[in-house]
Amino acid sequence: MNLSVSPIGKVVLIGFMGTGKSSVSRLLAERLEWSCADTDEEVVRAEGRSISDIFADDGEGAFRDMESRELSKLLEAPEHAVIATGGGAVLREENRSAMLKHGFVVTLSCDPEKIIARVLLDKSRPLLKGAVRERVYGLLEARKGAYDFAHLTVDTTELSVDEVVDRIVMAWKQHSALP
Ligand SMILES: Nc1ncnc2c1ncn2[C@@H]1O[C@H](COP(=O)(O)OP(=O)(O)OP(=O)(O)O)[C@@H](O)[C@H]1O
Ligand SMILES: O=C(O)C1=C[C@@H](O)[C@@H](O)[C@H](O)C1
Ligand SMILES: [Mg+2]
């Protein structure tokens, strides 16, 4: 697998729901003085509907097509950016290779119990509707290894958003200084 990074810097955050991609992306972008985007937000904006409504009206496959389209637009934009992705964006090979082609890819991971605590109050994730605990464990099992292709993995379980950002900035600086 080619792990070199495109000269136009993009940091791409991947990881399971609730690992902090959206939160970390905003602070990381501020730190780097780059712009910040989120594929979930881009899909919602393009469609004028919530993710739950898209899943209910058109199904997950249609959402995945929209997600791939918005991801590809963000990755190909000619500017530095931090890109937060939806938790399932890694499921398509075309998305994984586009991320690696255009960006420094960072997986945020987290202990399942902490993930459950983080997502419990937020009802906006259609894949977690109903029995949240069972769904989180089931999806984590189904997605075992799916986030392992990144340049860097940060376990966020015991870290604040600020500390997660520190680690990414340090690794990005080292990586981008490589010849
Ligand atoms: N390091 C952290 N420590 C404590 N709470 C956190 C941390 N990171 C994120 N959170 C909280 O967890 C919740 C989920 O975070 P966030 O929405 O950023 O996750 P996400 O990875 O973008 O999820 P999704 O894939 O569903 O978009 C938010 O309430 C956020 O404030
Ligand atoms: O993990 C997933 O499949 C998802 C995560 C969210 O970010 C959204 O993209 C959507 O709720 C699906
Ligand atoms: Mg998010």
TrEMBL record:
InterPro entries with a match to the protein in the record: P-loop_NTPase (IPR027417), Shikimate/glucono_kinase (IPR031322), Shikimate_kinase/TSH1 (IPR000623), Shikimate_kinase_CS (IPR023000)
Domain of life: Bacteria
Binding site for substrate: D40, R64, G87, R143
Keyword Transmembrane: no
Co-factor binding comment: Binds 1 Mg(2+) ion per subunit.
Cofactor: Mg(2+)
GO cellular component, one term: cytosol
GO MF entries: ATP binding; magnesium ion binding; shikimate kinase activity
Enzyme's top EC category: transferase
Compartment(s) where it occurs, according to its Swiss-Prot or TrEMBL record: Cytoplasm
Gene Ontology biological-process entries: amino acid biosynthetic process; aromatic amino acid family biosynthetic process; chorismate biosynthetic process
Pathway(s) this gene product operates in, as recorded in its UniProt entry: Metabolic intermediate biosynthesis; chorismate biosynthesis; chorismate from D-erythrose 4-phosphate and phosphoenolpyruvate: step 5/7
UniProt KW keywords: Amino-acid biosynthesis, Aromatic amino acid biosynthesis, ATP-binding, Cytoplasm, Kinase, Magnesium, Metal-binding, Nucleotide-binding, Transferase
UniProt EC number: 2.7.1.71
Binding of ATP, residues: G18, T19, G20, K21, S22, S23, R125
Role summary: Catalyzes the specific phosphorylation of the 3-hydroxyl group of shikimic acid using ATP as a cosubstrate.
Complex and partners: Monomer.
Family recorded in the similarity comment: Belongs to the shikimate kinase family.
Name listed for the protein in its UniProt record: Shikimate kinase
Organism of derivation: Paenibacillus pinisoli
This protein's encoding gene: aroK
